[in-house]
Amino acid sequence: PLNEVEFIIQPIKSGKIITSSTFELIKWNYDYSDINSSCMLMFCSDFLNQVLREENGNEELYIEISNFLQSVTVQNANAHLALLFSVLRYSGHLPLISSKAFLDPESGEFTENESHSFFTQSVSETWKMYLERSDYSEIKLNRTQRQQMLDSLMI
User: Fold this and answer.
1) Are 79 and 40 in contact (CB under 8 A)?
2) Distance, CA of 122 to CA of 115 (rounded, Å)
3) What is the pLDDT of residues 50-87, one digit of tens each?
4) One-character DSSP codes across 100-143
5) Range 33-40 contact pairs with CB under 8 angstroms and sequence separation of 24 or more
6) Fewer Cβ in 10 A, N or C end of the chain?
């Protein structure tokens, strides 16, 4: 999944259907025997298929997907979270950051009181880390934090 391919099309003749002369795999970067990387790739490819089904070509998203694939090749365990957060940023669905402690997923704002059981103070702090940075590869999360962040992203 998520391999980069190249299409070469025949010159367009008026009134004819566009045909492809070549379809080639450009990069093959992954060790498919690595279960963690394979799971991340499958999860993110399915997610992107669902979210971007009606999306036109977009250079910014292409760059984010390329960054994700690069992170997977260097075995960054947080790569999938960075991609999901990038898609949220692109689509304009990020919460408004403030000094308050808890993220309210319904309003998209930080509040004084916990409004959802998945959005504890530690999960809300992780959200703030992502909101405050532009390079998500700098963020290091342990396994529990990754799972909690993934759960909160899916809400």
Assistant:
1) yes
2) 14
3) 888 777 778 888 889 889 988 988 889 999 999 999 99
4) -SEEETTTTEEESS--STT--HHHHHHHHHHHH-S-GGG----H
5) 34/75, 36/75, 36/77, 37/72, 37/75, 40/72, 40/79, 40/80
6) C
